[in-house]
Amino acid sequence: MQAEYDGRQIVGIDLHRRRSVIVRMSEAGEKLETVRIDNDPVALGSEIAKAGPDPEVVLEATYGWYWAVDVLTAAGARVHMAHPLGVKGFAYRRVKNDARDAADLADLLRMGRLPEAYVAPPAVRELRELVRYRAKLVAWRSGLKASVHAVLAKQGVHIAVSDLLGPPRVWLTRGGEWFRPCVRAC
Fold it and tell me: The whole model's pTM is what?
């Protein structure tokens, strides 16, 4: 279903990993078009272009939303992020599908009742990803250390040092001769 409409458009997107459903509607709530696209920046950009200049776009904060927000913002859309916990109220509906979810998101935005989440700018998102990645690496390191201790314990091996996996030892050279500097009090 497609209709010509010259006013400001409200767009709801039900974003998934591979495909998404986009519902465009008028400010009065009239559905103008419902489209299913493969997730691709070019496809999303061309669909949003149909909404005219400066559309209001809403999508739920879900896995992989960064690229979609960046494409929508570059296309001139004013992007709103629906908070997933605030949108949980859709669960009561008897009919639940992607087109209905996208239309409901657009309706909530249109009526001013959208529970919004913060859309971090790209620089903040990058810092958050670095912190998350470091936390993941630290968790892996801790798990590997625990595995080493567990293997030793299962074999009944007792190590005479208090810190088996302590701070890394640094070896330096002085005049061509290798030595280990004293890391702790000597």
Answer: 0.74
For residue 31, which phi and psi values (nearest 5 degrees)?
-70, 125
Q: What are 125's two structure tokens?
A: 């998102």
The long-range contacts involving 116-119, CB below 8 angstroms and separated by at least 24 positions, are 116/80, 116/81, 116/82, 116/83, 117/61, 117/81, 117/82, 117/83, 117/84, 118/81, 119/69, 119/79, 119/80, 119/81
How far is it between the farthest Cα atoms of the chain?
A: 82
Instruction: Name residue 58's beta-bridge partners.
Output: 12, 80
Looking at every residue in the chain, the average pLDDT score rounds to 86
- At 86 the pLDDT is 82
Let me know how long the chain is.
Answer: 186
Q: Which has the higher per-residue pLDDT, 92 or 115?
A: 115
CB 135 within 8 A of CB 99: no
